[in-house]
Structure formats: structure tokens, C-alpha cells
Amino acid sequence: MTNYRHYEAADFVADASFQAWVQHGSNHEFWTGWQAANPDKASAITTARKLVEALRFHSTEVDPAEMTAVMQNINQALDQTKKNESSARRRLIYIISAAAASLILGILFLWPPSPATVTITTSFAETREVALPDGSRVILNANSRLRYQKSWSASREREVMLNGEAFFKVTSHPSGLHPKFRVHTPMGNVEVMGTAFNVHNRRGAVTVVLEEGKVKMNDLDMVPGDLVTVSATGSERRKVDPAKFLAWKDHRLVFENEPLSSIAAILEDTYGYTVQFRKTAAKDLRLTGTYPGNQIGLLLSAMRAVHGVKIEQRDSTIVIE
């Protein structure tokens, strides 16, 4: 586990878990508890929050190299702030403005004003099928966003940006268009020549599951049955049954010895619930089975029956103890 005791404001800004907390409320229990236990870090946390909030218009839509340059500027400004406390407030405002300007330039570079871009979003518990300009098919999971240029050409790679989760069935070598297809995520890019795969981008980590064909996640070549997860702490590859990870397309939830903490994350990210554990030990209880994605009540009943836990649902809040 990361030792945040040695972190300063710039380190928090660069941390994926901290970003997810500020931008989406993820990991809320951990970060509120950590703040309470480390009151001497209040100033660094406050500064870092302001920086992340200022840049939240969306770091996932910026070239990673551009983001690195921004972070260098932030570090330099924070170092200068330590040397000159009297100008700290002015300097903080300046660096937020400079970073925002740099990110805007990065967005304009990646996505020029013409041709127009298309943004597809889904709400909680909603899935949507999208046909891309090359004929590729995308099934967008709930609480997700897909962005791409309206018109594609032979001179520019086919590109999309994804927040959330989506299944891709990519057209190989479409006539008159660039042969390469790329999915941009905060932790790197998925390079595709024509294949079927799933990308899950939530809570500071990106997971790619390959069903058929061949893709490359960053510099790692994947073959069917590979699962690759990339986060701020590194990358991991393992063999899986892709069907389990693609079941959401058929409105099914498939769990194999899954901890309740992971199931809670799905309920929050996909369905918009807030899940609270009154007993920490309940988070590590595990569940196996297949459940209809549109009947969450049956899933909660299974948790009660298998583990004897008490579960209360109050509107969009689920309490487990």
C-alpha cells in the first residue's frame, strides 16, 4: 500500500486514487479516514484538491506527454511557493491557470476543432450500442462516456477516448480509412488492428480483456484470454475466461469468488448506489454466481443467504453489516 505520509501536494495531484476521490468521490472512506488520521497534511491536501479540481475538465483527454509537462510546472511552482510563502496564493492561482491553459492546448492538439467530435454518454444502469464511422461496433456500459471525431480519414489513425467501460468489435482494414485503431485511456492506449475486446476504465485503473484477435496495451502484446490491468502502481497480466467480463453486455453479473468490496464498486460505478459497510470484515466475504443485471434485489438476497449478513436498502444507499 502506498505510504502517503511522505507525499506533498504535487505527489497527491499525480496519484490516481487521489484524483478519483476528488473527481468522482471514489475511495471516499479511505481518504476521509486518512485525512482525519493525518491532520498535519491538511494544507497539502487542500492545495492538491484545488489543483485537481481546476484540471478536472478532463485529464483523460490530454496527451500523456502534455500532462507530464503540466506536472513539472506544478512541481516547480509548489517548490517556489515554499521559498516565498508571502506570494503563495498568487502563485497557486498562476499555476492553476497555466496548467489549465497547457491542458487546453493538449486537447486542441489531439482533437482539432474541425471535423466536429461526437460524445456519447450513458447514465447509471443504461447500456448503449454505437456504430463508429468505420463500421466498428461499441457497446457502452452504464455511467460511461465515449468520444471520437465525427469524420475519419486515411491519413489519421482511428481514435476514441473512453471513460468508464465498453466492449469493442473493431473493423479490420476498412476501405479508405487508416488501418490502425486506438482507444485512449488515462493509463495508456490500446492499439488495435481489428478484434473484439473489453476496456474497463474506473477508479484509477484500466483493465483490458481480449476476446479475439490481437491488441497491444501500451507496449504489451495481448492474445485472446489475456487480462491486463494498468494503474499508477504498475501493470498485471493473467489468463481469464473473457465471457465473465463480457457478461454485462447481456445484462448479467457474473462473479467467481468475488469479494463483496469489488461487488460494491460495481453497484456504485454501474448502478449509482452508495454502498456502506458497517463491519469491515464483510468487505472480504466472497460470492460466486450469475445474477440478472436488472434485478439487484436478487443479488442482495444472495448475499444475505450465503453469508447471513444484514443488508438494508434505503433508496440509492445500501448498508451491509
Task: Report on this structure.
The chain has nine helices and 18 strands. The protein has 321 residues and is of the alpha+beta class. Strands 1, 2, 3, 4, 5, 6, 7, 8, 9, 10, 11, 12 and 13 form a 13-stranded mixed β-sheet that branches. A three-stranded mixed β-sheet has the order 15-18-17, covered by helices on one side. It has a two-stranded antiparallel ribbon with strand order 14-16. A hairpin with an 8-residue loop joins β4 (145-149) and β5 (158-169). Residues 56-66 and 81-114 have low confidence and may be disordered.
Which descriptors would you attach to this protein?
single chain; 321 residues; alpha+beta; Jelly Rolls; Phage tail protein beta-alpha-beta fold; 3 domains; three-stranded mixed β-sheet; 34% helix; globular
Helix content: 25-40%
**Low-pLDDT ranges:** 56-66, 81-114
Q: Which descriptor suits the 3D outline?
A: globular
Instruction: State the separation between the terminal residues, measured CA to CA.
Output: 25 Å
Domain count: the total is 3
- What CATH calls the topology of the largest domain is Jelly Rolls
The CATH architecture of the largest domain comes to Sandwich
Mean pLDDT: 82
CATH class of the largest domain: Mainly Beta
- How would you sum up the major sheet? 13 strands, mixed
Strand content: 25-35%
Radius of gyration: 21 Å
Instruction: Give the H and E element order.
Output: HHHHHHEEEEEEEEEEEEEHEHEEHEE
Number of helices: 9
Structural class: alpha+beta
Tally of DSSP β-strands: 18
